[in-house]
Amino acid sequence: MFLNLWILSLVFGLGHCHPVSAQDISKGVDWLARYGYLPPPDPLTAQLQTEEGLTNAIRVMQRFAGIKETGILDKETLALMQKPRCSLPDIIGTSELMKRRKKRYALSGSTWDKNDLTWKIRSFPQSSQNNHLQSNTLRPLMYYALNVWSKSSRLKFHETEKEEADILIDFSKSYHHDGYPFDGPGGTLAHAFFPGDHPISGDTHFDDEETWMYNSPENHGTDLFAVAVHEFGHAIGLAHSSATESIMKPYYQGPVGDPMRYQLPQDDIHAIEQLYRKEEGPTNEPPVNPPIQPNIPITPVYRPPDQPRPNLPDRCQANFDAIANIRGEVFFFKGECGFHSCLRGSVVQRLG
């Protein structure tokens, strides 16, 4: 059954300056339900929504995202709905709770009942565009993304080889048996599950069809470290935040800088301190040697695939006046006749 006339009259009646297609309306309603702004569709009414319910949902979504509250699916709202983001809902509970909430950050309501958590990368990227993310690159990135949260809390993270790790990290495609299928490049980027007693609690999944990058220009892919910090926030109990500067904002905001120097925004520090306050004063626990901090390999300089090579002569076909081996390097010379004069001529090619 198609969407009812209440929705069509709402969008076309109030947004007549920029008409929205019926397909956009349908996608918008699906988006609002997927991310917690509308209740799940009722199979008896086939997604029928009231004008008041849809208007309120759109306003809450716009307020949460920090854009103008119009209550209609205008161009800015639809554009935001198409922006890459986390798969998890923005609203936990009802929109009324969100309206009354004074704090901009949100907590999921669940926490780990221990301070020492283990993590393991269970599956590595398989897509060709992510073949640079091997063990020596991916493990340090995950280490520093988790370490960001331990700096402001009592939590400590330890890598393990055991399959029963608290936080299992996977790179997956499309449907991967957890209820949150990925949708290919763009759209949803990753998701993680809140703490709890369920076997999947704490697990963190990244869409392997995205082009994951680090320490690279923003237009070359999606910054894996920034997304990992966000998702690990969910894995320890944080929900999405409406604060513009928060790493827990649901929409991808681009690279956040050097993983070894990144500091949480204040909104996220307040949130993690609410869940896992740092112990104050001296403790009776024996000192523990800090783990060795891994180095992240330097990524190669990006070069477009069609970048022309320097216009050098072919050594096998060109004519040269002299060839010399100087300090272990081979030089080709072309100039006046005679070896000594050739040395004063131009060096046309050098081999290291």
Automatic annotation (TrEMBL):
Its cofactor is Zn(2+); Ca(2+). The keyword Transmembrane helix does not apply. Residues 1-22 form the signal peptide. Binds 2 Zn(2+) ions per subunit. Can bind about 5 Ca(2+) ions per subunit. Ca(2+) 4 binds at D321. It is found in: Cell membrane. The active site is at E231. CDD domains: ZnMc_MMP (cd04278). Zn(2+) 1 binds at H176, D178, H191, H205. GO terms for cellular component: extracellular matrix; extracellular space; plasma membrane; side of membrane. SMART domains: ZnMc (SM00235). Ca(2+) 3 binds at D183, G184, D207, E210. SUPFAM superfamilies: Hemopexin-like domain, Metalloproteases ('zincins'), catalytic domain, PGBD-like. Keywords: Calcium, Cell membrane, Disulfide bond, Glycoprotein, GPI-anchor, Hydrolase, Lipoprotein, Membrane, Metal-binding, Metalloprotease, Protease, Repeat, Signal, Zinc, Zymogen. Belongs to the peptidase M10A family. This is Matrix metallopeptidase 25.
